[in-house]
Amino acid sequence: xxxxxxxxxxxxxxxxxxxxxxxxxxxxxxxxxxxxxxxxxxxxxxxxxxxxxxxxxxxxxxxxxxxxxxxxxxxxxxxxxxxxxxxxxxxxxxxxxxxxxxxxxxxxxxxxxxxxxx
Length: 118
Description:
By secondary structure, the chain is α+β, with helices and mostly antiparallel strands.
């Protein structure tokens, strides 16, 4: 009987955890920050590949699921590039600072599929 009660407690705990963290486990909107709009990215968009700034902890699988959920298209391939931190100097004050890096993802789609970024 004691084993049964332990199992019930574990199942109840799992149900509570699932109900409180449900929005975080299924939502992938936090993975894609915004579209990376540059001249190079616009040229890539003509060939069915799009560039997004993504969360630094994002994986290829999370990016794929986020694109599926938000844009209703299935990516053919995803490539990730890490943007390094850069030192910058203010021309006015001469002080040196650091420009934050980040991560961007190139999302390749099948021919005929498009994403509306506007």
